[in-house]
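Exam prep: given the inputs below (a chain plus NAP), describe the expected output before reading on.
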Amino acid sequence: MIMHGNGKSTVAVLGLGAMGTALAEALSAAGNDVRVWNRTSQRAAAAVAAGARQAGSSAEAVEDAALVVVCVSDAAAVRAILEPLAEHLGGRTVVNLTSGSSKEGRALAAVVDGFGAQYLDGAVMAAPADLGGPETLILLSGSATAYREHQSTLEGIAGRATYLGPDAGLSSLHDVAVLAIMWSVLNGFLHGAALLKRSGVEAADFLPIAQNGINTTAGWLAGYAAQVDADDHPGHDSTMTTHVAAMQHLVEETVATGVDPALPLAFKALGDRAVEAGLGERGYTALIELLLSGRP
Ligand code: NAP
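Solution:
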């Protein structure tokens, strides 16, 4: 890490949208010497007000920085910024906190490796206002050496900066895996709220029962994760066939109330296919065998 006489380390932040600005602010608040650059220079005002120094070019921003943080719209923008810096990044660590795909993360790791720099691909699992907090989560994957070297600086951005492993695609994969959970929970809540609204029940009145349902289901996950990892799906608590019968109740109630049945029909279609695939007497986690088969 390049240190100054005052003991501060220099960190470059490239990209000053909502998230890049919050990153620069959190890094400044944590005591780093922050150099910022944005394609549209006028957007640097908030980061500068928080203590960062604005560089005249991206090359100037990274000049003294051992750690270069990039956070822009997408992978194409990351490449547009990093490729002209090929001669300037050697020996540095690039942390890319732009949301993207695992394929893009792995490809960017190869590009940055070609510049003689270390690469960490990241996913910010929080809103800009949450950066710098002790409970804020960012996911990181890629160079283990880079993570070890910069762990304390990264924890200044997010107290729960979590390293997932050397495969640079892992942070993006975890990011989308959490999105699958988020939309499942939100859609389930909204479907339930729609069913109840038809009978005059306010969403606020449904809330405690909905939250109890979400928490109860979340409590099953540790046991279910163990079953998935063991490839063992005992139907002790409830079999797939029992689940499919309950899915049919949900479909019928939904149709009877005139609510859009797309969601319960999707649940039921998966359940039916699991039974057809011979998983009817196994536990619910056996569904993962159907998912992993990749068959439509
Ligand atoms: P944003 O406010 O729209 O900012 C986009 C940034 O990308 C700007 O700095 C923009 O520069 C830059 N940019 C776009 N195309 C470029 C190019 N070709 N060359 C150079 N710079 C380019 O977006 P944001 O909210 O900061 O989001 C940034 C990333 O964080 C995204 O991947 C997003 O998914 C992720 N994220 C955001 C949030 C959130 O709540 N905001 C939460 C989690 C993750 P100009 O100013 O010059 O246009």
